């Protein structure tokens, strides 16, 4: 079964989270918005007159942090954005390790067990999917 939980009081500063959000929105506006609009036009969605029931409406890219970062390979990222995302990744990694230790404690496992299990041959794999959901030009045609 799948599930989720919300993490509060996680220790990542609101200042850092605000910078990540602001820079992500700025990057989308500067570098991705026009490409997304071109994709929408290429698919002919602006001319659609009937209901659409299966549409992935997101503009996204993926930053891999571990085991080897791809942040230098992503085109159009400004230096400051790269740096804030590196800082964000370090904070997320610390948080993930803390959560794994809490899960170990709650499952009656030795501290560090889950980290070791997830470590794998090359180390842990982790990244950030950066997504933006722009306004749909024809929201009345989308089935919910």
From TrEMBL:
GO terms for molecular function: metal ion binding. Pfam families: DIOX_N (PF14226). Transmembrane segments: none annotated. InterPro entries: DIOX_N, IPNS-like_sf, Plant_2OG-oxidoreductases. Residues 1-69 form the Non-haem dioxygenase N-terminal domain. Keywords: Iron, Metal-binding. The keyword Iron applies. SUPFAM superfamilies: Clavaminate synthase-like. This is 1-aminocyclopropane-1-carboxylic acid oxidase. The gene is ACCO2.
